Amino acid sequence: MSLEVGNLQTGNLQVRGLTVERNGRPVLHEVSFAAQAGRVLIVMGPNGAGKTTLLAAIGGAIKTAQGGIEFGGAPLTGLRPAAMAAQRAYMAQHFDCPFAYSVEDIVALGRLCHVGTPRAARDKAAIAAALAGADLASLARRPVTMLSGGERQRVAFAKAVAQIFDRSQAGEPHLVILDEPVSSLDPEHQHRLLGQARQLAKQGATVVVTLHDLTLASIYGDDALVLDRGRIAAQGVMAETLTPSLIERVFKVRVGTAIPDGGPCIVHAVPQDQAA
Ligand SMILES: Nc1ncnc2c1ncn2[C@@H]1O[C@H](COP(=O)(O)OP(=O)(O)OP(=O)(O)O)[C@@H](O)[C@H]1O
């Protein structure tokens, strides 16, 4: 099933014929899909498939060679940077800060796009809510240089949440892009963060997340986009798309256990030379 949508509703993300080159080499080839408001789209694929490149293109962090990216029916590049930042939060795969800013200060950077607008009145509430949501309230004054890898990842998520707090609270369309947001997190915080991503979708966000953990993808994703060597290998509703045969073909592992009918697909991946 295709993730194309005919009539764009406000808040839908539409990517058409996207080609991206890195270092002069195409790494995404004419990728087309839609992500719908109120739903979580999980982007999956092997190392080097182009997931980060895709999210960075949608997040405005890298240039595209060809194709269009529209949000709510308008080109994403058409807005001024501050207006765009108020509705599109992008959490990159890696977050590193060499300076000893506090956790709270880093999360507050997410509010920079609201300076000089009425939304600035909600900065304090936004930062407090984002810190609490990421379980960082007790670390708010700690320099980020003194955090663990997982704690830093939660800071990056909290910054993204603070950025789109206003639209989320108002139930207005916004785009949340999370590139491997749980790669360093313990199981409790993985579920906590992805649960929050689902909650953002419930509040009107269009949520696009990359994950390597196929079980988490199955639990938290409404829709799936599977990339393989820069092209779409499969796309559609999660339960219909993330099948054992797809997993074996694209990820080159066998599925030991899967519970497909309705419930989450619990993926127990074993090497291909070990029959399930
Ligand atoms: N800065 C860069 N310059 C040149 N090529 C790059 C650059 N970054 C990534 N690539 C290449 O682009 C392709 C896609 O990389 P990308 O990071 O998007 O993959 P990915 O699916 O996110 O992989 P992973 O699962 O390992 O994070 C790969 O072949 C990679 O080697």
Automatic annotation (TrEMBL):
This is ABC transporter domain-containing protein. It holds the Pfam family ABC_tran. It comes from Labrys okinawensis. Belongs to the ABC transporter superfamily. Part of the ABC transporter complex HmuTUV involved in hemin import. Responsible for energy coupling to the transport system. Residues 13-254 form the ABC transporter domain. InterPro entries: AAA+_ATPase, ABC_transporter-like_ATP-bd, ABC_transporter-like_CS, P-loop_NTPase. The lineage of its organism: Bacteria, Pseudomonadati, Pseudomonadota, Alphaproteobacteria, Hyphomicrobiales. It comes from the Bacteria. One of its GO terms (molecular function) is ATP binding. Keywords: ATP-binding, Nucleotide-binding, Translocase, Transport. Gene3D superfamilies: P-loop containing nucleotide triphosphate hydrolases. Coiled coil: none annotated.
